[in-house]
């Protein structure tokens, strides 16, 4: 799979309502429409191009052709190899090719696709390849494909539900509006952990599928294990039935994490000391080094670190977040500011839209020994009692900030933000144990690739 070059992160124009607005907090409408919300959160335009936007590679190739050409190009430049042929990807690649051909030739589409497997197996890469081939002119599919990280889609959905008071059956209304605009929806990292999301999805998907929308999704777990052991999981089972009915499930069962294998290749240039973990330099020095890469050295750095922190904040989603320093679209935040307080995916979506480079300092050891307690019957649903009975819950002391950190990394990765970590711990030691071990494996894999982005930026 490729190491995506974040330098291709585009600048969006607000003229086209289907294009993503760079900073959606500055939109004039206080109640964005479905169309505006989809434009805010959609990331199909953020995919790194396979080649120059005007080249035949992008404009006229199918997923299979683009994949094969990328491998062929790599064979002549082994030291720069970005895509390695993987037999375990072939079934998924051919299924995406079939779906692509059916769509562009207006043939009936039997089912969508649900690609699942361990971290780093190429699921996101293959789905993005599919989306990119469909979204490039002169394909008739242009502007009919929506590609979103799943948590971004749920953020948009909850926003719209808050704006549709007075509309009968708002969920069906929202689903129909989505279906009017998009024929294919691609979700990256399909994962459900919240009971509110679990309850919404069955009715939403039922309307989308009945309206002819095709779903392509990636996940780390099979359909049958979604929301496993979740509260009132019986209310999510209809969603599982719908996914099994309307998608073809493919397991990418390879044993290679392509992100880790890319890191193992010999580097033509040594890694700068300020990028290494555990960190040997102060965050002040690291931020100064970061700003030297692509910003005018004569412009002043807004250094907040030595002033009163309470007076230097950034307004994000109507809340203040402490910022240590800012230089153009480079920013430095402490871990506590982004992951210790009441933050959500919406905060990270907006931050990733504002900054191209972020230094996150003082990242602590996460996770810890798992503790358990009994949650009383009905407490998850307010005053209304439920039939859930006593429920055993488990967590580690640092799992709440770890969960936010996972969400932050997902968003930075999805929007191709170069993230620099300052920590006294090695990357592989950040989360030694805890209740989120499975989820953090994806985060670790993505951080490995993001380190390579930072290294590429530092030596070019």
Description:
Keywords: ATP-binding, Cell cycle, Cell division, Nucleotide-binding. InterPro entries: ATPase_AFG1-like (IPR005654), P-loop_NTPase (IPR027417). It holds the Pfam family AFG1_ATPase. Residues 1-33 are annotated as: Disordered. It is a single chain. The chain has helices at 34-41, 56-60, 63-75, 90-104, 123-135, 150-163, 170-181, 195-210, 237-246, 258-264, 283-291, 335-340, 345-354, 399-414, 437-459; strands at residues 112-117, 145-149, 184-188, 214-219, 247-252, 302-303, 313-316, 319-322, 325-327, 330-334, 357-363, 367-375, 391-398, 418-423. The chain is α/β, with parallel strands linked by helices. α1 (34-41) packs antiparallel against α6 and α7 (170-181) crosses α8. The longest helix is centred in the C-terminal third of the chain and has 23 residues, at 437-459.
């Amino acid at each position: 799979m490729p190491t995506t070059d974040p330098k291709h992160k585009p600048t969006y124009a607000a003229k086209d309502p289907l294009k993503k607005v760079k900073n959606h907090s500055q939109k004039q409408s206080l109640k964005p429409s479905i169309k505006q919300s989809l434009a805010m959160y959609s990331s199909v335009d953020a995919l790194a191009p396979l080649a120059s936007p005007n080249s035949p590679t992008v404009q006229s190739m199918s997923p299979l052709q683009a994949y094969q050409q990328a491998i062929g190009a790599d064979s002549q430049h082994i030291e720069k190899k970005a895509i390695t042929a993987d037999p375990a990807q072939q079934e998924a690649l051919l299924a995406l090719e079939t779906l692509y051909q059916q769509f562009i030739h207006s043939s009936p589409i039997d089912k969508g696709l649900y690609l699942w497997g361990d971290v780093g197996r190429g699921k996101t890469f293959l789905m993005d390849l599919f989306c990119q081939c469909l979204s490039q002119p002169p394909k008739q599919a242009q502007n009919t494909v929506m590609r979103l990280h799943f948590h971004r889609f749920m953020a948009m959905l909850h926003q719209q539900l808050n704006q549709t008071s007075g509309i009968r059956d708002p969920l069906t209304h929202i689903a129909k509006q989505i279906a009017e605009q998009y024929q294919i929806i691609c979700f990256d990292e399909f994962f459900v952990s919240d009971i509110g999301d679990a309850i919404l999805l069955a009715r939403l998907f039922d309307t989308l599928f009945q309206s002819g929308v095709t779903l392509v999704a990636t996940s780390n777990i099979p359909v049958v294990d979604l929301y496993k052991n979740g509260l009132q999981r019986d209310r999510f089972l209809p969603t599982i039935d719908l996914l099994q009915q309307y998608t073809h499930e493919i397991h990418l069962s390879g044993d290679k994490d392509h992100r880790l294998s890319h890191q193992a290749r010999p580097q033509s240039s040594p890694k700068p000391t300020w990028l290494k973990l555990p960190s040997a330099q102060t965050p002040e020095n690291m931020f100064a080094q970061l700003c030297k890469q692509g910003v005018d050295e004569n412009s002043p750095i807004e250094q907040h670190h030595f002033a009163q922190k309470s007076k230097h904040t950034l307004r994000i989603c109507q809340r203040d977040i402490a910022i240590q320093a800012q230089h153009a679209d480079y920013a430095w935040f402490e871990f506590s500011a982004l992951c210790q307080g009441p933050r959500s995916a919406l905060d990270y979506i907006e931050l990733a839209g504002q900054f191209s480079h972020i230094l996150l300092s003082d990242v602590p050891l996460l996770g810890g020994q798992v503790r358990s307690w009994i949650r009383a019957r009905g407490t998850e649903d307010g005053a209304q009692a439920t039939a859930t009975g006593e429920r055993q819950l488990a967590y580690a002391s640092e799992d709440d900030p770890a969960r936010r950190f996972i969400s932050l990394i997902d968003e930075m990765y999805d929007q191709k933000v170069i993230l620099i970590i300052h920590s006294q711990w090695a990357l592989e030691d950040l989360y030694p144990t805890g209740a989120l071990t499975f989820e953090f494996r994806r985060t670790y894999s993505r951080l490995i690739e993001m380190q390579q982005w930072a290294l590429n930026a530092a030596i070019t």
